[in-house]
């Protein structure tokens, strides 16, 4: 589960490139675009501009470069020409990128146009919850510390944490050990070691935490129809704390607010 320095350098390069994909999305006016159009734009950018590979395409038989999860879709939303983003939507784009044999994984929930206050609050709290988890990462900490920090923040704000899906180790393979739960107890679970690389990707619901998978076998939605949001970063445990490998330029200010080492 631990990576050597040369592997960490390659993972950091994949993470840097993936962050630039979100930079592209940040500059894009999403309202009126179909999720399939966005998928095609992202794949074009990854393949032709970054000379990299969209690692999700072909993984487990999945046919697209990203997952597009709109409103009550928790995760694994499938891009579609008929799914056009409208003013007031929230949408999570979950994207993976492989360069030189190493994979980075990240996601961000976007507000489309004018979004109501309740949706904004959910999205903001989910983002904060991810960073609560990141702050818990350091050598000697436990996986349970990450889950506890995330769940505590979610519950304090009145949200539930989806339990069926978790973060994961990552490297040459998309999904490696360990599994990183977004709930748990402090001081429990695997001890973190320098060189471990994994994702932290909490999914928070406005309503209950129960989910169901739709007939396509991919799309996961909230069972009660409530909104769901997610954020994700790939992180590495360092000697002094944590490095966020997929950190985006707009997040540099987060570094000074945490013990995170870029």
**Number of DSSP-assigned strands:** 15
User: What do the pLDDT scores average to?
Assistant: 95
Q: What class do helices, strands and sheet pairing give? A: alpha+beta
Q: What about the largest sheet?
A: 4 strands, antiparallel
**What string, H for helix and E for strand, traces the elements in order?**
HHEEEEEHHEEEEEEEEEEH
Tell me the distance between the termini.
Answer: 21 Å
- Molecular shape: globular
Roughly how many Å is the radius of gyration?
17 Å
Low-confidence stretches: 258-262
Total of helices? 5
Strand content: 15-25%
Q: Helical percent range?
A: 25-40%
Oligomer: single chain
Please sum up the structure shown.
The protein is 29% helix and 24% strand.
Description:
By secondary structure, the protein is of the alpha+beta class. It is 29% helix and 24% strand. The strands form five sheets. Strands 1, 2, 4 and 5 form a four-stranded antiparallel sheet that branches. A three-stranded antiparallel sheet has the order 3-12-11, with no helix packed on it. A hairpin with a 6-residue loop joins β7 and β8 (176-180).
Summarize the helices and strands and which ones pair or pack.
Blueprint: H1 5-26, H2 35-49, E1 53-54, E2 66-70, E3 73-75, E4 90-99, E5 102-111, H3 117-135, H4 143-156, E6 160-161, E7 167-169, E8 176-180, E9 197-200, E10 203-205, E11 211-213, E12 220-222, E13 228-230, E14 233-237, E15 242-244, H5 252-257
Antiparallel strand pairs: 1-4, 2-4, 3-12, 4-5, 6-10, 7-8, 9-14, 10-13, 11-12, 14-15
Helix pairs in contact: 1-2, 3-4
């Amino acid at each position: 589960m631990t990576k050597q320095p040369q592997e960490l350098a390659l993972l950091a390069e994949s993470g840097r490139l993936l962050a630039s994909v979100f930079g592209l999305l940040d500059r894009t006016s999403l309202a009126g675009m179909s999720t399939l159009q966005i998928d095609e734009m992202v794949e074009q950018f990854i393949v032709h501009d970054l000379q990299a590979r969209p690692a999700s395409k072909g993984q487990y038989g999945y046919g697209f470069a990203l997952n597009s999860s709109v409103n009550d879709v928790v995760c694994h939303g499938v891009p579609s020409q008929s799914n056009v983003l409208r003013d007031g939507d929230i949408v999570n784009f979950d994207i993976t990128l492989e360069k030189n044999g190493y994979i980075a994984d990240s996601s961000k929930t976007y507000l489309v146009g004018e979004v109501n206050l309740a949706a904004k609050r959910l999205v903001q709290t989910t983002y904060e919850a991810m960073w609560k988890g990141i702050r818990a990462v350091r050598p000697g900490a436990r996986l349970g510390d990450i889950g506890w920090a995330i769940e505590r923040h979610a519950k304090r704000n009145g949200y539930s944490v989806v339990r069926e899906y978790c973060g994961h180790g990552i490297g040459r393979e998309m999904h490696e050990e360990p599994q990183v739960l977004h709930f748990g107890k402090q001081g429990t679970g695997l001890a973190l070691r320098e060189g471990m690389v994994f994702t932290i990707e909490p999914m928070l619901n406005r309503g209950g935490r129960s989910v169901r998978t739709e007939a396509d076998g991919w799309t996961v939605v909230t069972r009660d129809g409530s909104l769901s949001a997610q954020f994700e970063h790939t992180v590495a445990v360092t000697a002094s704390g944590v490095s966020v490998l997929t950190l985006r330029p707009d997040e540099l200010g987060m570094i000074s607010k945490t013990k995170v080492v870029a």
